[in-house]
Amino acid sequence: MNLAIKKLRKNLRISQTEFAKAVGVSLRTVGSWERGESLPNAEQIWSCALALNCSPNDVLGWEEEKPTQDIFEHELVECYRACTPSRQDRILDTARDAAGMSKETSKHYSSEPQRQAAGF
Description:
This protein is mainly α.
């Protein structure tokens, strides 16, 4: 099994020591997982996912079938994952606002031909 703990931890700029404390294991255990010498149990995988702000599948290095992301989507996701929870909330609020504005704009333009046909 190819755990993604080291990659996820480094993306968040968390030291092994900080990560070990967050998960409730020793520094030696984290090193062992990252070197592939041992594997975390189910409870530890869950704790890792919480500490790394990701899913257990991400911790295990399991790739889900996802639509391919372009380079900008990938960068946005990586930046989001590297942020603190409060900044993630702000990013999400901004994205929701932008999506809402996009929907309103598309409604306006899609109803334009109907308005013209009705003589408005």
